[in-house]
Amino acid sequence: MKKIILSTLILTALYSCKKEAPKTDGSTAATDSVAVTQNTTNQAGTYIPKELSPENVGQHLAKNNDTLYVTNFFATWCGPCMREIPSFKNKMEELKDKPVKFTFINLDDKADWDTAVKDFAVENNLGTNVILLDGQKLDQNFFSNNFKQWDGGSIPFTFMRKGSQTDEYLGMMTEEVLNSKIEAFLK
To answer: What is the pTM of this model?
Structure first.
Protein backbone atom coordinates (compact mmCIF):
# COMPACT_ATOMS: atom_id res chain seq x y z
CA MET A 1 0.00 0.00 0.00
CA LYS A 2 2.86 2.37 0.87
CA LYS A 3 4.43 1.75 -2.55
CA ILE A 4 1.17 2.63 -4.31
CA ILE A 5 0.81 5.85 -2.34
CA LEU A 6 4.47 6.72 -2.87
CA SER A 7 4.25 5.99 -6.60
CA THR A 8 1.17 8.18 -6.84
CA LEU A 9 2.99 11.00 -4.99
CA ILE A 10 6.00 10.79 -7.30
CA LEU A 11 3.87 10.72 -10.45
CA THR A 12 1.86 13.68 -9.17
CA ALA A 13 5.11 15.55 -8.47
CA LEU A 14 6.50 14.88 -11.91
CA TYR A 15 3.33 15.91 -13.70
CA SER A 16 2.46 18.94 -11.57
CA CYS A 17 4.01 21.27 -14.11
CA LYS A 18 2.16 21.89 -17.33
CA LYS A 19 3.81 19.81 -20.01
CA GLU A 20 5.27 22.06 -22.69
CA ALA A 21 7.69 21.71 -25.53
CA PRO A 22 11.26 22.60 -24.55
CA LYS A 23 12.20 26.18 -25.33
CA THR A 24 15.45 26.98 -27.03
CA ASP A 25 15.69 30.67 -26.20
CA GLY A 26 18.01 30.16 -23.23
CA SER A 27 19.72 27.53 -21.19
CA THR A 28 21.53 26.54 -18.06
CA ALA A 29 24.88 24.98 -17.63
CA ALA A 30 25.79 22.90 -14.66
CA THR A 31 28.55 20.90 -13.24
CA ASP A 32 28.33 17.23 -13.02
CA SER A 33 27.67 16.17 -9.46
CA VAL A 34 30.30 13.46 -9.77
CA ALA A 35 33.04 15.37 -11.59
CA VAL A 36 33.13 18.87 -10.20
CA THR A 37 34.68 20.38 -13.31
CA GLN A 38 32.55 23.13 -14.75
CA ASN A 39 32.60 23.59 -18.51
CA THR A 40 29.74 25.50 -20.11
CA THR A 41 31.27 25.12 -23.56
CA ASN A 42 31.51 21.35 -23.31
CA GLN A 43 31.42 19.40 -26.55
CA ALA A 44 27.68 19.09 -26.53
CA GLY A 45 27.70 16.75 -29.52
CA THR A 46 29.43 14.14 -27.38
CA TYR A 47 26.81 14.28 -24.64
CA ILE A 48 26.54 10.96 -22.86
CA PRO A 49 23.75 10.84 -20.29
CA LYS A 50 24.96 10.10 -16.77
CA GLU A 51 22.46 8.41 -14.50
CA LEU A 52 22.91 8.63 -10.75
CA SER A 53 21.10 6.63 -8.13
CA PRO A 54 19.11 8.46 -5.45
CA GLU A 55 21.87 7.51 -2.99
CA ASN A 56 24.55 9.16 -5.15
CA VAL A 57 22.41 12.26 -5.58
CA GLY A 58 22.00 12.32 -1.79
CA GLN A 59 25.79 12.18 -1.38
CA HIS A 60 26.17 15.12 -3.75
CA LEU A 61 23.57 17.12 -1.84
CA ALA A 62 25.42 16.46 1.43
CA LYS A 63 28.81 17.79 0.26
CA ASN A 64 30.11 19.99 3.04
CA ASN A 65 33.02 22.21 2.01
CA ASP A 66 33.82 25.76 0.88
CA THR A 67 32.24 25.32 -2.56
CA LEU A 68 28.71 26.54 -3.16
CA TYR A 69 26.68 23.74 -4.76
CA VAL A 70 23.57 24.87 -6.63
CA THR A 71 21.41 21.86 -7.53
CA ASN A 72 18.29 22.35 -9.61
CA PHE A 73 15.69 19.60 -10.12
CA PHE A 74 13.87 20.02 -13.45
CA ALA A 75 12.17 18.31 -16.38
CA THR A 76 12.17 19.33 -20.03
CA TRP A 77 8.35 19.26 -20.16
CA CYS A 78 8.04 21.67 -17.20
CA GLY A 79 7.42 25.22 -18.45
CA PRO A 80 8.59 27.02 -15.28
CA CYS A 81 11.72 24.84 -15.24
CA MET A 82 12.64 25.85 -18.78
CA ARG A 83 11.88 29.55 -18.16
CA GLU A 84 14.35 29.74 -15.26
CA ILE A 85 17.21 28.06 -17.17
CA PRO A 86 18.56 31.30 -18.77
CA SER A 87 19.01 32.86 -15.31
CA PHE A 88 21.03 29.88 -14.13
CA LYS A 89 23.13 29.90 -17.28
CA ASN A 90 23.85 33.64 -16.91
CA LYS A 91 24.90 33.14 -13.30
CA MET A 92 27.10 30.19 -14.22
CA GLU A 93 28.94 32.25 -16.80
CA GLU A 94 29.35 35.12 -14.34
CA LEU A 95 30.74 32.82 -11.63
CA LYS A 96 32.78 30.45 -13.81
CA ASP A 97 36.03 31.26 -11.94
CA LYS A 98 34.47 31.11 -8.47
CA PRO A 99 34.00 28.09 -6.18
CA VAL A 100 30.40 27.60 -7.32
CA LYS A 101 29.22 24.36 -8.95
CA PHE A 102 25.87 24.00 -10.72
CA THR A 103 24.14 20.65 -11.20
CA PHE A 104 20.84 20.04 -12.95
CA ILE A 105 19.05 16.87 -11.93
CA ASN A 106 16.66 15.80 -14.68
CA LEU A 107 13.43 14.08 -13.69
CA ASP A 108 12.07 13.30 -17.17
CA ASP A 109 10.79 9.80 -17.85
CA LYS A 110 13.63 7.42 -18.63
CA ALA A 111 12.15 6.95 -22.12
CA ASP A 112 12.90 10.64 -22.86
CA TRP A 113 16.55 10.62 -21.83
CA ASP A 114 17.94 9.86 -25.28
CA THR A 115 15.59 12.26 -27.04
CA ALA A 116 14.16 15.32 -25.25
CA VAL A 117 16.77 15.46 -22.48
CA LYS A 118 19.71 14.90 -24.81
CA ASP A 119 18.36 17.50 -27.26
CA PHE A 120 17.90 19.98 -24.42
CA ALA A 121 21.45 19.46 -23.16
CA VAL A 122 22.98 19.69 -26.64
CA GLU A 123 20.99 22.80 -27.63
CA ASN A 124 21.97 24.52 -24.39
CA ASN A 125 25.62 23.40 -24.33
CA LEU A 126 25.19 21.52 -21.05
CA GLY A 127 27.05 18.37 -22.06
CA THR A 128 27.87 16.40 -18.93
CA ASN A 129 26.25 18.97 -16.64
CA VAL A 130 22.83 17.33 -16.67
CA ILE A 131 22.40 14.38 -14.32
CA LEU A 132 19.65 11.86 -14.94
CA LEU A 133 17.61 10.59 -12.01
CA ASP A 134 15.03 7.85 -12.51
CA GLY A 135 11.96 9.05 -10.64
CA GLN A 136 10.78 5.45 -10.34
CA LYS A 137 13.66 4.86 -7.91
CA LEU A 138 12.68 7.72 -5.60
CA ASP A 139 10.84 7.05 -2.38
CA GLN A 140 9.70 9.27 0.46
CA ASN A 141 12.96 8.59 2.32
CA PHE A 142 14.88 10.35 -0.46
CA PHE A 143 12.97 13.56 0.19
CA SER A 144 12.89 13.39 3.99
CA ASN A 145 16.59 12.46 4.19
CA ASN A 146 17.77 15.26 1.92
CA PHE A 147 15.38 18.20 2.29
CA LYS A 148 13.58 20.12 5.01
CA GLN A 149 10.80 21.50 2.80
CA TRP A 150 10.60 19.60 -0.49
CA ASP A 151 8.48 16.47 -0.55
CA GLY A 152 8.78 15.92 -4.30
CA GLY A 153 5.32 17.36 -4.88
CA SER A 154 6.33 19.79 -7.63
CA ILE A 155 9.22 21.18 -9.64
CA PRO A 156 11.31 23.19 -10.27
CA PHE A 157 13.15 22.89 -6.99
CA THR A 158 16.58 24.36 -6.20
CA PHE A 159 18.80 23.28 -3.33
CA MET A 160 21.92 25.24 -2.37
CA ARG A 161 24.64 24.19 0.06
CA LYS A 162 27.91 25.70 1.17
CA GLY A 163 29.43 24.04 4.19
CA SER A 164 26.63 23.47 6.67
CA GLN A 165 24.51 26.35 5.32
CA THR A 166 21.62 25.30 3.05
CA ASP A 167 18.75 26.93 1.21
CA GLU A 168 15.72 25.39 -0.50
CA TYR A 169 13.56 27.12 -3.09
CA LEU A 170 10.41 25.57 -4.51
CA GLY A 171 9.07 27.01 -7.76
CA MET A 172 10.47 29.04 -10.60
CA MET A 173 13.36 31.22 -9.49
CA THR A 174 13.66 34.67 -11.04
CA GLU A 175 17.09 36.00 -11.88
CA GLU A 176 16.81 38.49 -9.02
CA VAL A 177 16.03 35.76 -6.47
CA LEU A 178 18.82 33.54 -7.79
CA ASN A 179 21.32 36.41 -7.61
CA SER A 180 20.21 37.32 -4.10
CA LYS A 181 20.47 33.76 -2.77
CA ILE A 182 23.89 33.13 -4.33
CA GLU A 183 25.22 36.50 -3.10
CA ALA A 184 24.10 35.62 0.44
CA PHE A 185 26.21 32.43 0.28
CA LEU A 186 29.26 34.15 -1.21
CA LYS A 187 29.49 36.98 1.38
So the answer is: 0.74
